[in-house]
Fold this protein.
Amino acid sequence: MSTTRSLLPRSNEGEPLLSGIEEIPRRDPEDQVITDNGTPLPKAQFTILCILRILDPMAFSQIFPYINQLIEDLGVAKDASDIGYYSDTIGRRPVILTGIAGLAVSTAAFGLSPSFYSVLLTRAFAGLFSGNVAVIPTVLCEITDTTNQAFAFPLFGIWWPIGAIVG
């Protein structure tokens, strides 16, 4: 009978997990945040990173206040009220289902892309079918009223960051 040695050191289950690690001496320079048992966090660099992190969602959402006017000015639609033409004409459900199907196909095609140009093409295709970003909140407004909007809107807002984390 052969005996195998464990690669992990033996531990006492009653002992704290990190008890064998020496505590890092606490320093308190002005530009660092002190953590209990870790490396001090550089405040200035961390602040800059947090500010830079804001830029992506700002760049994504900055177009929303003026997109209707922009589309009208570019001649895509004669009137801003024509922008939701398909969802108003054929209904919200078919538009949402088409958007979901298009995103599914473009995501699969993106994953199977053999070249850089096919990656670009599939991402453009995904953008073509990402109209649900506008249609779904419209449906939310239609299914709520003043008595339940204060509950529904914040709860609805949580799902975008959850999707970003899961995706």
In short: The chain is about 55% helix and 0% strand. The helical segments are 43-61, 67-73, 85-89, 92-111, 116-128, 132-143, 149-157, 159-166. The mean pLDDT is 79.
